[in-house]
Amino acid sequence: MCRSIKTLRPPALPEEATEEEIRAAALQYVRKVSGFRAPAAHNQEVFDQAVTAIAQATAQLLDGLEIRGQKVRA
Fold first, then answer.
1. If you average pLDDT over every residue of the chain, what do you get?
2. Which InterPro entries is this protein grouped with (predicted)?
């Protein structure tokens, strides 16, 4: 588990997660899974693509979640 990735839904966050928070969580995930804090130049593109894809999936997840009958993100 990536301990530096925080929960991005209420009540853990008092407000809606920002794009910056979502991207930071995606970056931490990719770093953990790849084992690289910063990829070599020849891996930078695929590393960045993974961060973008995971950030998009995270935003989609948060948009679809309901907590006690309320949407997490408006």
1. 88
2. DUF2277 (IPR018735)
pLDDT of residue 52: 98
Q: Are the CB atoms for 47 and 30 separated by under 8 Å?
A: yes
pLDDT at residue 48, as a whole number: 97
For residues 67 and 8, the answer to whether their CB atoms sit within 8 Å is: no
For the chain, how long is the longest CA-to-CA vector? 46
Which carries the bigger pLDDT value, residue 21 or residue 3?
21
Q: Are 33 and 5 in contact (CB under 8 A)?
A: no
Over residues 33-49, the mean pLDDT reads: 96
Dihedral (Cα; 43, 45, 51, 57), 10-degree rounding: -120
Residue 58 and residue 26 in contact, taking contact as beta carbons nearer than 8 Å: yes
